[in-house]
Amino acid sequence: MRVAIAGAGAVGRSIAGELLENGHEVLLIDKAPSAISVERVPLAEWLLADACEITSLDEAALQRCNVVIAATGDDKVNLVVSLLAKTEYGVPRVVARVNNPKNEWLFNESWGVDVAVSTPRLMSALVEEAVSVGDLVRLLRFSQGDANLVELTLPPEAALAGTRVGDVDWPEDTSLVTIIRGNRVLTPNKEDALEAGDELLFVAAPAREEQLEDLLSVRREESSD
Fold this sequence. Notes:
Residues 137-218 form the RCK C-terminal domain. InterPro entries: K_uptake_TrkA, NAD(P)-bd_dom_sf, RCK_C, RCK_C_sf, RCK_N, Trk_Ktr_HKT_K-transport. By secondary structure, the protein is of the alpha/beta class. The protein contains five helices and eleven strands. Strands 3-2-1-4-5-6-7-8-11-9-10 form an eleven-stranded mixed beta sheet, sandwiched between helices. Strand 1 (2-6), helix 1 (10-21) and strand 2 form a beta-alpha-beta unit. The protein is elongated and about 60 Å long. The N and C termini lie far apart (62 Å). Mean pLDDT is 86; it is low at 219-225.
């Protein structure tokens, strides 16, 4: 997979390193000469250019990229790069970094963004996930398709504990994608039984989140007449 990263700062270089370790081709683009540190990521391609300029993106052969990551520290730049990547070059997957949470509402399909990553939101979500069991936590927003990546840790005495995945009447527009059980990462199949303490990751439409949370809640005693 070929990936272009706009922004060769600490964030961009870190992403590049991870992708290279996983066998992908990576191009780092930055207009600041001081950011071109080939020795830090020697296996990447480097381009000294303004990623907001069509001529620069032509030189980068962006149409050959499977993914573009807008990872600069400037939200305006990230939006422009995302829009150009999607509309001018037809890049299938565009991921954009959100620096200022107040700008998060802009990072959607209208600007060519498929996945918006807000560091403050992600950090707060991870804090919530660490202290809450039984509560649904939003980890990531997918702009395309109006869906979120959400997490819920199945609490003790949960109504669905012991139930097979295939026997659960899941809400519409939700998909169970991963079960994290201790040190194991499981790809769920219909025969797997849910266990208390399972960390469940779903891709779900926002309108279904409350229904999903109710479904996975603890057993409630029936009120007596």
